[in-house]
Amino acid sequence: MTNSIVNGAINGLAKMLEKLMIVLVTAMMLSLAWQVFTRFVIKIPSTWTEEIARYTFIYLVMIGAALGVKNSVHFGMTMLSDKLHGRSRDLYQRFVINGIIMFAALFMVYYGIEFTRMYGMNRVSPTFLTPMAWVFGIVPFSGILMILFSFQNMMYGDFTKDPHAYEAEADEVY
Question: What is the pLDDT of residue 168?
Answer without folding.
Answer: 55
